[in-house]
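Fold this: Transposase DDE domain-containing protein
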Amino acid sequence: MAADSAYGSAEMLGWLVHERGIELHIPVFDKSERRDGTFERADFAYDHRRDLYTCPGGKELRSRQITYKNERPLVDEDGMVRYRASKLDCDACALKPRCCPNARARKIPRSIHEGARDLARDIAKTEAYVTSRHQRKKVEMLFAHLKRILKLDRLRLRGPNGARDEFHPAAAAQNLRKLAKLIPPMPKPA
């Protein structure tokens, strides 16, 4: 399935991959990059087997640093698991000014759908993804043409059948305009 980055959220990717089993050709919607010069999430290595992150200094970030008497949930209401470094590790680390200068210890949130996001990132590196992106751009241009030139910017009929009933004549008009460009002009009578 190909779509634009509006469909690249963690929840949508997780639903498509885990519940529907669809191969994704969707750019991942990602805001994890930093502009302040500190380490990004990509600088931390995630170990799937041990379920922890390793920082550039070699220290481990775990979802649990201590064992609680009453078990607490790992996942918060936003669907995120928080991985935290030990304050003792961060205080002794020479990389602290580049890692977490304004915090006691480094925290990394990880979505419960991060596996689907990783899969989408891996697919984005393939040749098939480049081909599907090129084809998707062609379709998007046709929809942009429908919206701007043929003034189909708002659907008047409701539901999927109504949308189909509006798009079919608009697509037919679009195809007729394309065909009209292929026909050579008629010679003018003398």
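Residues 5-122 form one domain. The mean pLDDT is 83.
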